[in-house]
Amino acid sequence: MRGSTLTPPDPLAPLDLAFWNIESPEHPMHLGALGVFEAASPTAGALAADLLAARAPAVPGLRMRIRDVWQPPPALRAPLSFGGATREPDPRFDPLDHVRLHAPTTDFHARAGRLMEQPLDRDRPPWEAHVLPGADGGSFAVLFKFHHALADGLRALTLAAGILDPMDLPAPRPRPAQPARGLLPDVRTLPGRLRDALSDVGRALDIGAAAALSTLDVRSCAALTAEPSGTRRIAGVAVDLDDVHHVRKTTGGTVNDVLIAVVAGGLRRWLDERGDGSEGVAPRALIPVAKRRGRTAHPQGNRLSGYLLRLPVGDPDPLSRLGTVRGAMDRNKDAGPGRGAGAVALLADHVPALGHRLGGPLVSGAARLWFDVLVTSVPLPSLGLRLGGHPLNEVYPLAPLARGHSLAVAVSTYRGQVHYGLVADAKAVPDLDRLARALAEEVETLLTACRP
């Protein structure tokens, strides 16, 4: 730990700074993952908590706190805009502040939902690991929470993997040496930089115009938007990846197209059963696309774009719904993730740090004007993960819930299964378990429709 104090502060990237400043007690901006492990004994959960606490200090990213700063310290490697924030080692770091063992439970999702309501401590490294022993002694779960300013989905996976059992992974390919960066830019690159800057301005205007148009002619879906209650409920469902591949091979497109179409069909079934009605409903789904910064980029951190599409919830034909989703995704991919209404998050790069700090509350309330539901995919390794030798059998990714939204959907594939993780406002969506079942039923509906 002693050497970590020498690590210089690192300025937050613009989007990280935005996530840090739009948070409120009712709308915490942390993402999560609920992993369910097979237990060899009733004490497996306690052992897991001890291992997580013992391993956490060795993972540098888990010891980083976020500190608001008004003036950049001289030790920074790059300039920091006035009013920003830095990511820096916490000299008071204690893993016992972050790893907690809970009483046994019979319902991992219900317990995790209550824990997802609670904001992370902003004065400490913004992450937590909650170990939930199963009441039957045959399983335990771990809920990981990471603030979105600390890590996106892929980075959070890397941090969590650092405190799970070591995996035998292939050695990374060596990266070519990067030329040293001088204090002043090479004048020969200035014309190109000017063209890039002008292109960035044009792209920003294009994104802004597309986002404004996307708010027009919208039939709102009351079930997906709600006044904030500060409560959370989560649910999860696992479906067979082979079934998804069968649908894809029969109809064409990609696995992701099928997974998004399942969400559309599940929402239709759920809305009809709860009496809200699905006729004419086409909620706008935001599909995030990671545009990661290179290791040499400064500042490093999140850089997200996205695709915006209308989910064909009102269409009664499951194969037609899938075709609509596939066509919309193809058009989005042809246009690229750097343009269009879905790329609004890229505009964070054009806002000064002080603007993020002062405008955070206003921006947080604008999400419901931009999209109705988040549908995000989180990559997971195909190798089996373990903790204390206990295999990880299920893992449900959990996305942050934006202000004014009732539902966020995250999906991942792991060891032959697709896991849908649902996060909802508990008061607006008390029947979230029914929606989870509707997703599984939609997969069966697609399989039936694909049979000759």
Explained architecture:
The protein is α+β, with helices and mostly antiparallel strands. Helices cover 33% and strands 21% of the residues. It has helices at residues 14-22, 44-55, 108-117, 153-161, 190-214, 241-251, 255-273, 318-335, 353-364, 367-370, 432-450, and strands at residues 10-11, 30-38, 64-68, 85-89, 99-101, 127-133, 139-147, 233-240, 284-290, 304-310, 373-377, 386-387, 390-398, 407-414, 417-424. The strands form 3 sheets. Strands 5-6-7-2-13-12 form a 6-stranded mixed β-sheet, with helices on both faces. A hairpin with a 2-residue loop joins β12 and β13. It is globular. Residues 1-5, 177-219 and 340-360 have low confidence and may be disordered.
The total of helices stands at 11
Largest sheet: 6 strands, mixed
Assess the beta-strand content as a share of residues.
Answer: 15-25%
Strand order of the largest sheet: 5-6-7-2-13-12
Task: Output the keywords.
15 strands, globular, 452 residues, disordered N terminus, alpha+beta
Describe the structure in brief.
It catalyses: an acyl-CoA + a 1,2-diacyl-sn-glycerol = a triacyl-sn-glycerol + CoA. Its EC number is 2.3.1.20. This protein is of the alpha+beta class and 452 residues long.
